[in-house]
Amino acid sequence: MTGYGALLVLCLAAVALYRILRHRSQLPLPPGPPGLPYIGNALQMPADQSWKAFTQWAQVYGDVMHLSVMGRDFVVLSSPEAVSDLLEKRSAIYSDRPVMPMLGEMMGYNQLIPLSPYGAHHRDCRKLLVSGLSPRNEPEYNMVQAAKTLEYLPKILADSKRFRSHIRCLVASTVFQITHGYGVANLDDPMTQLAEQTNDDFSRAATPGAFLVDAFPILQYVPDWFPGAGFKRKAKEWRKSSDKLRNEPYEMVEQQVIEGTASPSFTADLIRSKEGITPEDQYIQKCASASFYVAGADTTVSAMESFFLAMSLYPEVQKKAQEEIDSLVEPGRLPNFSDRSKLPYLDALLKEIHRWNPVAPLALPHRVTENDIYRGYRIPAGATILANSWAILHDPARYPSPFDVIPERYLSKTNEHLNPDPRPFEFGYGRRVCPGQLFAEDSLFIFAAMVLSTFNISKASNPDGKTIEPEVEYTGVIRWATVSMVNFVSTIVSLSIVLILTWIKTYAIRKHISSMGQSGKSLSNLCARDGSIYFVILLIMTIFNLVATTYQAIGDVTVLELAVSPILISRFLLDLRGADTARRNHVDTDEALASTVSEDTPESLCFSSAVVGNLEAPLTSFFADDEDQQEHEELPCDLTDSPSGGLAENSIKHEDTVHLDVDYTCEA
Ligand code: HEM
């Protein structure tokens, strides 16, 4: 190809690229509920169970819906097709996680698999975990799962009211035994306490938008002492426990391996797997090992609790599952893993538990790393992608009577599009799909089988013998910050009204002066003197407080607002009094006579004298003799109603102009 030919091709390629990029930027975003400028849909985000609101919105805007929150793009996928097309078929660019400065960077959870950015660290850690959780190790893990569940049964028998604590203890002891060969006796065990603590901290920080720093990452660099920087101290405190969870159990096993006393475990296998291990390898191993607990404990506990709830609400389903187990398992023996393939009803029941109350209704958020086009819509790079698994699993067209637990729906299948296996939507998508699915399902199976063969589960009753209806309310892994907007919004609206009215009045006064041919102060100067500065500060503080509360950026801002508001208001009132005093002093001067007050221009704020007296009046009037006081009390308070414009007849002469050069610095 000649030089000209190459140049031509290059030019054509450049034009084509330009057209593609232009076309791209012209494409619309997916439809979604209209929001406000910049804050977008922030005020519409439901505090809890956002997946339910997203499901309703999806009926209006479709299965690929765009939301914007404080400048961040969110795309909610609500159908298997959209989820598969983007998160699975295009997983090369849809497998990152959104950056969460608080939870990720500041608390260190971005080093653990679930929140780790898509890249080398994630790949290396995940590889270790996936190999540890492979079906090859399943029989060994099954033995531990069965033995731990067996230990659990007498605990429920002894104290059925605390069945939830026992479940947490069961999962903790199973997971620690497998990951670190460590036997947990009860929930007071220091290792369990540490794990529970990190889980708690994780949940509190995991709320998208829970901390202002997640919306404005620059805030992570503010100094610790800065007002409102309580989140930094919190992050430091929480980071200590996550670092501890990563290091301490691992170091314990490392020591045991050196001493030759280590029990078989995932971590011991990791440590033994490499000769001459580097600190980097060791770090990867620690992260993989801690991820096992962090990702596996709460999720499994939640599924087990759902099982108990479903059994208490659907006794006929429970009875059928028990009959199936009893018909297979001879008396005196408990079911085990070898019975599983012969328990189709129980298998269907567990599928239904996953569908009915999915542990992660919005899975975990993914992040798209490149601009993309889907169905003619633009998906901007960096957008957070939420897969609404709950919507898919509760779509009546796919699962008729979606809110009922009906295991039969999977047994008598006549239509392959109806009642598909729900598990592909319960354990996540694409390259971030849950690596612990097999382990979780095994834990749930042996738990359900043993509990059903030994106990009847029913609703609790109160001392009067009345049945207590259990609440079927789930908060899910992902929650939006809870905030009561009403107070903030009404305060913001009222402050705005005060400001607008004040400025209209100030503007009118200035216009009036100009029309009289006098050169008054500039508008900005007047605004600085009309008291609106205090209300502007109050308004800014309220808005800041609203944002901080929405993002739970710790309460310092509220405290600041509470402390500063009365000061500002009292300052404003003192200024009013000062203005009046100054005006009174000016009355006797020629200057005051030269520039006085308009009769028809209300120029100051006045309070009902019947209620609080005229706050504008100087304090001296309060202490004046009765006669004087009488005089003051008789002053008409409402300036517009007063024939003299509301100013004391004896204090000022009424001319056509307002005296605007009052000294607002208060002498009182
Ligand atoms: C009923 C129990 C469980 C449920 C419902 C569940 C569900 C999920 C879901 C929805 C995700 C997010 C997938 C995505 O981003 O698309 C996930 C991720 C993950 N799960 Fe599970 N999980 C369960 C148990 C477990 C267990 C027992 C383990 C460990 C042994 C585990 C380890 C993980 C890890 C490490 C990730 C992060 C994967 C990644 O980001 O690459 N999970 N899980």
TrEMBL record:
It comes from the Eukaryota. Gene3D superfamilies: Cytochrome P450. GO terms for molecular function: heme binding; iron ion binding; monooxygenase activity; oxidoreductase activity, acting on paired donors, with incorporation or reduction of molecular oxygen. Keywords: Heme, Iron, Membrane, Metal-binding, Monooxygenase, Oxidoreductase, Transmembrane, Transmembrane helix. The keyword Metal-binding applies. Pathway: Secondary metabolite biosynthesis. It is a single-pass membrane protein. It is found in: Membrane. Its cofactor is heme. The keyword Iron applies. Coiled coil: none annotated. The chain crosses the membrane at residues 480-504, 531-551, 557-574. Its main location: membrane. It holds the Pfam family p450. GO terms for cellular component: membrane. Heme binds at C434. Belongs to the cytochrome P450 family. This is Cytochrome P450. It comes from Fibroporia radiculosa. The lineage of its organism: Eukaryota, Fungi, Dikarya, Basidiomycota, Agaricomycotina.
